[in-house]
Structures are given as C-alpha cells and as structure tokens.
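Lab manual, section 2.4: Encoding a predicted structure.

Procedure: take the sequence of the chain (411 residues), apply the prediction step described in section 2.3, and record the output as structure tokens. A sample record is shown.
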Amino acid sequence: MKESIIILTGGGPAPGMNTVVGTLTKAFVAGGYRVIGLHGGYSGLFSNNPRWEELDFFKADTIFNRGGSYLQMSRFKPTDNDFECNFNLKLFRDNNVKLLVTVGGDDTASTANRIAKFLEAKQYPIHNIHVPKTIDNDLPLPGNAPTFGFNSAKDEGAHIARTAYEDARTSGNWLLISAMGRSAGHLALGIGESTHCPMTIIPEMFNKTEISVDKIIKLSLSAIIKRKILGIGYGTVVVAEGVFHDLAAEDLKATGVHMTYDEHGHPELGKISKAVLFNDILETEMQKIGLKVKTRPIEIGYDVRCQDPIAFDLTYCSELAMGAYELFRRGETGCMVYVDNDGNAHPLYLHDLQNEEGKIPPRRVNISGGTAQNYYRNICHYITPADYEAARKYVPCPEEYDFNKILNWEK
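Recorded output:
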C-alpha cells in the first residue's frame, strides 16, 4: 500500500490555512504519497467514524489561495480517557500513515506531541511535524519571525481601522476599536501604528504598573484631551482585547457595566464585545467629568480570521509547507517548522520551547523596543507636563492624565 500522511487543522482559523494544506498536498503527492485531509481537527482522530478525504492536486490547486480552512477546524482537546478508549489507531494502520502534520497554535502542537508518544508506545511510531499559526503573532519564533496569518489579519484590521479613522475625521467623533490578541498586543499595535492611531493600548504597556480600568480610561482621555488642545476633534483608540482579560474581576464589576459571570464569579468576556464594553465605560467617565465627545465602538475580530491571505502569507505559508516536507525527508519529528529569511527550513523542537507545565509561553510585544517606543513617542497624542495649563480647560487635574505618569514610565 502507498505510504500516506494525515493533515489536520486545529484551533481557530488564520489566513493561509489553505495555503499550507494545498502546498503540503502538492509536495507530498508529487513525492509519491497519499494525502489524507482530516476534518474536525483532533476530534477526527478520536472517533470511530472520522470524516476525511483524500486530497489531490486539483483540490489543492482550488483552495491554496483562499481564506478560511477547507479542512473543518476544531478546538477539541483529548483527555487521557480519550487516548485509552477512543483513539482511532485503525485509521493510521489501514492507510499506512507515516506522518501527521498539524496546523495550529501551541495547544495543537502540544497535543501532536502527545499523539506521537502514544503511537510510539503502541509500536506504531510516526513522524509529527507542526506548522505554527496564529493571528496573535505570539509564538516564540527565532529572529522575531511572524506567525503565519498575522500579516494578513493586520492588513485587513488596518483597512477597517483606516476606514474608521476617516469616518471619525469626516464626522468629528471618536471610534473605539477593540482588536484580537488575548495574550499579546502585536495585532493591536500593528493596526494602531499603521493607521497613525493617536492611542493604542496593549497589555505590555503596563510593565511598570498594575493594569486597571481607571488607567485604560485615563490613557484614552489623555489622547482625546490632547487632540482638543491641538484643535483636532476626532480620532481613534485601539485596544487589545487582552487588556480586558488582564483586569481583576472586581475592577470590571465596579464599572457597573452589565455582563454575565461564570460559576467562579469571573466575567465571561468571551461572550461580549470588548469594544462595546470599552465604549460604555468611557462614556460613563466622560459624563462624570463633563467632557462632551461622541464615541462609537468597533470590534476587529472574527472578520480578519478567514479573509484571503495577502501575498506575504501566500509566499510564507508555501515556504512553511515545503519546509515541513523537507524536514520529513530529513527524518525530523516532534518539531515545529521554522523558515528563515533565506527560505531555509529548520526544526524547532517542541520540548525545547515548552515550559515546565508543557505550555509554550507567548511571545509578547517588546515594549522597550524601537517599534513600540518610536510609535508612542512620535505618533501618539497624550498629555505631558507642557499641556497642563491648556488641559485645565477640560479637567481640573491634568496630571492625572499624563501618559508617562499613568504608566510610571517617567525617567
């Protein structure tokens, strides 16, 4: 029987999923392998009746430049009991599978490692290679290399934010934008910088002080007041969703904004729009201080995950997939594929990336680096001591809205 590989996609979508799957298919079919596309992510491996199909050149050629994921995705995470009772070893044996390629984030990679060890223990060792994706750009790749999908998501997010900024300028109001990024602010900062947003708020900013609702609001008002002083009555504020996830539950409850809570009393932020939450809190504060500014919320989230990949990701994802094929030919396993600036593929071994808990720590924005610091110094608008006198027209204590004091960034 012909040797074959299985490809599955896990987690949430990112632009370039189909590019990876399509390129993998073309490379392995040309190399004489059968390619099995598994639907449902890992749930398909723990089912007696998995949904799968054999992929060929024509299917690959149809999907490789499209957004979304032709292979249906899933966040299914197998338990120890699933491994003992539900693992479909027959799927591997019946199809003479030699390689499992997983496309996803750190959770998908960790589960791939568990599966490889399980199969080895069952005396059916196969290779496993992971292709890392996330629009959050928070996997620790060497040389600050991006994760695939990030640049396409940033491009579409910037398109939305650029349009929002023009609406703000045209209408003379403020648009409050929440961008995806639960553990890192790469996407929000990329959108804010590329659209010359006067204030972008990301978790990494609070490296010298504790994050709070009050500080988020004061940073936003600092930009609004500064622009009023400059005679600019409009603008945008971009906030990474991770900012809200980092807040203490008591802090959020104290705002009085209506939301649901889980059995532990934690706000269920995944069920609400962070942009609407942010807008409601800011409007309440502006009413308190008598600042008359019209604001509107905009959420940038699911609308950037399934768009068509831009040329960068079409190229990058093709190189990652071809790199996975090259690593397999070299006999590599238990690794993520990394492609350097020259297009050369390298293995990143999962056991080297994982911490003591078996997780891959997120790569966060280097808040002290040139990208962040130059943006905050030269593009953002906010109150400094030189603005105190003019700012008293709008607030009695301007120093409370001093950007560097809020963040404790004073030298």
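Check your result against the sample. The first strand starts at residue 4 and ends at 9.
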